[in-house]
Amino acid sequence: MMANQDTNSTISQPIQSFYNMVKNYGNDLNYSQALSYYIHALDKIQFSVETTIDSRQLRFDIYLNICDIYIEQHEQMLADKLCREALNVANELQEQEKISLCLDRKGKIKRLQYDTKEALVYLKKSLDMKLKLYGNNNLEVSSSYHQIGLIYDNQCQYDEAILMYKKSFNICLSVAGYNHPNIVRLCNKIGNINHKQGKCNEALLMFQKSLNITLSAFGDNHPDIATSYNNIASVYYKQCKYKAALSMYEKSLSIKLSIFGCNHLQIAIIYDNIGCVYNSLCKYDEAISMHQKSLDINLSILGHSHPIVAQVYNNIAAVNNYQGKYDEAILMSRKSLNIYLSIYDHDHLDIASSYDFIGLAYFNQGKYDQALLMYQTSHNITLSVLDHYHPDVATTYNNIASVYLNQCKYNEALSMYYKSLKIRLSVFDYNHLDVAISYNNIGTVYGNLCQYDVAISMLRKSLDISLSLLGHDNVIVATSYYSIGYINDKQCKYNEALIMYRKSLDIFLAVVGLNHPEIAKLYSNIGLVYSHQGIYDQALLMYQKSLKMTLSIFDHNHPDVATSYDRIGDINNRQGNYTQALSMFQKSFNIKLSIYNHKHPQIAKSYNNMALVYCYQSKYNQAISLYQKSLNIILSVFGYNHLDVAMSYNNIGLAIFHQNKYDEAISMYQKSLDISLSLLGHNNTNVATSYLNIGSIKKDQGKYDEALTMYQKSLDIFLSVVGHNHHYIAMLYNNIGSVNNHQGKYDGALWLYQKSLSVTLLVFGHNHREVVTLYNNIASVYYNQSKYNEALSMLQKSLSIGLSVFGHDHLNIANLYNNIGYIYNNLCQYDEAIDMHRKSIDINLSLHGHSNDVIVAASYNSIGNINYKQCKYDEAIFMFRQSLDIYLSLVGHNHPNVAASYHQIGLINEHQGKYDEALFMHQKSLNIRLSVFGHNHCDVATSYDRIGFINCKQGHYDIALSLYQKSLTIYLPVLGHNHSYVAKVYDYIASGYCEQSKYIEALLMYEKSLSIILSVFGHNHVDVADTYNNIGTVYDKLCRYDEAISMYRKSLDINLSLYGHNNTKVATSYNNIGFINYHQCKYDEAFTMYRKSLHIFLAVFGRNHPDVASLYSNMGLVSYSQGKYDEALSMYHKSLNITLLFFGYHHPDVVTSYNNIAAVYNYQCKYNEALSILQKSLKITLSVHGHNHSDVATLYNNIASVYCNQSKYNEALLMFQKALNIRLSVFGQNHLDVAISYGNIGSVYDHVFKYDKAISMIQKSLDISLSLLGYNNTYVATLYNDIGLVNYHQCKYDEAISMYQISLDIFLSVVGDNHPDVAKLYSNISLVNSRQDKYDERLSVYQRSVNVE
What we know:
By secondary structure, the protein is mainly alpha-helical. Helix content is 82%, strand content 0%. Helix 2 packs antiparallel against helix 3, helix 39 runs parallel beside helix 41 and helix 46 runs antiparallel to helix 47. The N and C termini lie far apart (142 Å).
């Protein structure tokens, strides 16, 4: 403010005229010229002849005016010097009025130096003087109140400031009336206070008042009118009513241009203000243009080193920041800082402001330590200048908090935000926008801490304040809706999130028009909600809208453009479009590289995104490499203790987990967990996620109890944080259900899957990918329960939804086709099964253009299994090999899927009778499983089972039993006793006992197995049917035929109820019943059963299948037993041809067919043909098994039988002895085959009249048989018959009769009286009666024999 005192007329006229001219320059703000002339005037006064009072008064005025210029130029030190000169003159003149004016200037200088306390001292002294000089009702007094009001304003003591302004206003009004310039200025000052207090409507009222007064006083074209428009614009700007603000600024500009012309500081100010509006409207080119105009004017008038120039540089930096041009922003802010530092001491608010701008650019670049340093520097300066309870201090706390928030230091961030809030509440009323912003910020932190209810509460407070101050149609209100929507999304309240986002969108559209970054962000976030809901087409549409808008606003190289590409890439990835996904992520990556340096969190994020695609493609090594790159960046930016570091460890853990490197994966997850716990405490979803991930590894390791513990920990946290209806709750129910499923707790699994489904339907609705997964999982339980129709129904539901969610060409659909294929496979609908697996392969090939994919491998594996069941072993091996090659290329050698492929090939080798090759494959599989899982895993136990089975087949029973015991030792602690896998081991042990003829022990094992299976599955399950079948087989061996039939019937009933008639399981049951009928000599019934079985097998497999061959063989056996030798031979040859087609010559089933044919030739007395066939058979068996094998012994036994029929007893004895030696070495003494060998040798000794040896051999056989089979067995009965025959040959008729009677009693009790062996015994007894001359008895017995026959 220029001094306006009049000087006396006693000063010479030239000096007076010169002075008046200089004052005009000062009033026109041409400070350089004014200063020059004032100094010249001082020189003139100094060199005048006389020093008068008038000259001193003129000198005073000039000093004061120069002081005012320096104040305007922010040269406070020079201003203070000139003020002191003026004060000296005033003291010389001893004029209180002039002294008070100097005190006013001292107060103003101190205010500008932020020394408000000293400023207040000077101004109050001045006020006291003026009150004494003029009394209360004087414009100078009014001016002092005005100046004191400014101090209180700067101290944020707004009530005191308004009180002072009103005092000033009332005095001015009473003295000068409404049309005085100070009335207008005071209205503006009061309006500014209202503005700062967030009372925007009151502020507008005051500014409008000011405008009306000015209009009535000066008309339209006056600087004060322009100032009023400017003030009104500033309120609109604060209210985010940018179009209204722009209109006011343009009105102000128009007036000032007409008054001042283009090159004037007032014009520069308006250009700068308009630039800020354009920046907020995201019209960045226009904003830069306005700021540049302002800068050019300021530079031309003020030169480079001026605070206003510095401020313009900061404003340009603000635009650069929004444009993502961070280096340019830093350059501008550094220019600003250097100017301020050259003008002020270090502790100045403008310097603090520049540090804030630089900090913002570093923050956007992800250089958080540097940003924090800048913000801390600004904070320290602000505190040194201002009182602690000042809004600017609150802002510095906010800035620091924003860094802590991004560093995941949430407690520190909250502390800063609460400090800021406390200040704002103490300065402003509750109802203030800055308070609303604080609540919004605090809500954001609570959202990151997963304290969603607290977050929503804070955001609602912010929204309520904003609504009360601004009304509905305001971008700050829109921002509150946006923030609440974001939390709703995190809570999986998707519909609520969409409502909030749409409210926000509607406001933004109404306020800022169609083309704005916030609208683009809203489209993007709405897309994100759709993505979370699995509505990918809608999500993609939103992301593309967002991208199009962002590209129209920014250059291509902008962070928001990169974000759009990222999100589009994510959708493509989720849809299985991996090439497109990688392309989008690469685009984003290239943009980020152009904006940021290589060590930026956004670059790390891009590596993460691309790694995730590789994970989906099972390219885990490439994924891990990118995850590691990401981790290195994050560690360099944030240090160890940051959530992004935790996330990186989590991601690496996931990729390693897929490689089945469980210990390494656990280590990664544990690192992630430790960081999350240290940052967030226990009750946080990040911590819960770590527990969930660790649980998944434990599940895959077969450590089910540990998995459940982890899942339960995770569930408890999620329930406490997000409540029951959240997709993570559904996921955990699903995971716990999966453990139950693996543990064989199927009812529990089904209940948990249903719970998961209920929550998922509530959260996502029916048409969602998670619903697809859950129907699939429920199907898996039904599958394990052998409820194949129910499983198929669930999978069809899953497929129907999946097709609507994913479309046809998606990996999840491929997976579903695979699963449906498994069901058809078990229902023996092999063509349908293969069709499903082929569909799965076709989808994968269409997606990837190659077959190198885990789902393709799984499909090949599945087709291989079907080929295996169809006994198309070469085709099966081919499929398994293809699957194996894919797995080896994708995951390397040391992986469970590779082990599974070796396992499958081993199974084929078993069925081909290639036991050494099978053993080699299973050993390979075992080695991998041991290295991946360690010893205590179910897959390891499975390998032990198969290796045990092969050893059993090779006659290594002790080794087999040892391996089964190992398997059992693994299963019991992992699964508990009551599990189907444990039952399966008991089955294997039982089969081993059967091979050793330990039928009682076998029965005990099968009954253990049955007890478990019944408790796990209930009665109606395929495993129960199989166990009944196994028990029936033992009863058959024990000649307990009625019990055997009962078991087989039970098995048949279950299979019929599960599969219907046309199923191989049903066919097997008919075959087994037929076998019992055959043993009971019910040949017609046996033949009927075999035919039933044959029809089913032919319908399922066609003519060329080993099971068909087996049935022809069984039917041949019936024909043979009925003496229909030609029919028998026909059947045997049919069987042989099929077997040769499948297995080639070197297979045990070929040997069996040759043996059967030889038996017919033997019975037809075609001994040479029989021997020829048996020699062929022997050659094959020796090539397959080597010499020391039970099958070789069987062949020696069969050859011996031919020799016996040829009466070549020595050759026969030699063969029987060979058979015995092998059986003793393989089985030991106590085995049924050994007993048979002893019996056969005894029979030869009988034929060569060595009766004592015969009796000794047969007795050995009897002792073994009794110990193994018990008394009531047909083979035991046969041995008593043989002893009786030797007694008969020795003419020991009573002993013979006694033996025959024992034999007869056993046969009658086992097979009834209608059996050929019973007839034979009656015949034998009649012969003895004949020798004893008991003809009546002989006739009676003989008649019985005839009746039976």
